[in-house]
Gfo/Idh/MocA family oxidoreductase (Kineococcus glutinatus), 361 residues
Amino acid sequence: MTVRPLRVGVIGLGWAGQQHLEAYRAIRGVEVVALAGQEADLLAELGRRHEVPATFARWEDLVELPGLDAVSIAVPTWLHAPIAVAALRRGAHVLSEKPIARTGDEAQTMVDAARAAGRVLDVVFNHRRRGDVMALSDLIARGAIGRPYYARASWLRRNGIPRLGSWFVNEEMSGGGPLVDIGVHVLDWSLHLLGEPRVLSASAATYSELGPRGRGGGDRDTLTHETSAYEVEDFASAFLRLEGGGTLALETGWATYRDPVDVMDFTVYGTEGGAEWRAVGATDVPVADVQVFTERGGHPADHTITAQPGRAHQAVVEEFVDVVRGDPGTWSAHDGSHALTRARVIDACYRSAREHREVAL
């Protein structure tokens, strides 16, 4: 029997939006029927290139389109909640870029809307789909290093403020700096690798030392029409206490005086061994080796795992489509609450930094 194509709309024309658009176009039985964005020339060009029948300058018009099954959101963070809630209330499933929202309370409105509508709300955490992270996840899950008790993870840049003067550095629009922007990825892959332990408390510090002086922007310099003052941190560190006695230390920075090459990493110590993944070059490096440190018979048995590259946004979009097309009884397990827990931890970190104390969740 013939199955009606899944009709999808994509909101946002930047790099992330184009990743969604191309991923949907590669899936059989999915039609991108609408595209929305404010860059008129780019909107027209992407619409022509990908044969999208309807284009809109306003996201409000896209979510009102009859017969829309799903919406992808790839716009500035302050718009995630209003777009998601509007789309969910119209009966569409939603895939949103990270972070889910500026705050946990704002994220809660999205989760509540998904539950009320009985629709899927998923959030893009593409780095857990890296091949090296998946290999490390398998290693830990099968008990190769015993019980993990301490982990450290980071994503650090030298000159990586997204755009000086843009919405990224406006606290009201972004919700924060690197902690909420790239730090949420670090938090996600860390908790994922550790088996999703509950975070009990957070002790954090934030620093704004380079951005306010116009430093740290590199080739991501401001556009002439963007004039926001620098209102967020440019570096953050956090120490998290986990259920079961484990701990996790995080560092994330857009701009720090360090090696000029960006790095993403994760180190874990377990009762029977340890492991480390370090992608020097960060997102420009599709896969890195995983170093494993253990012993057999009292002698070192260290070894290296060579992984294959992951599929990033393509994998995320495919999983979202599979859930939407699958048993509606499984939709409630994809209500955004996973991303909401990350938002609550980020909230606790910012509160800890403001109040100079450990904050319980």
Notes: The chain has two domains: 6-126+313-335, 131-309. Residues 337-355 form the longest helix (19 residues).
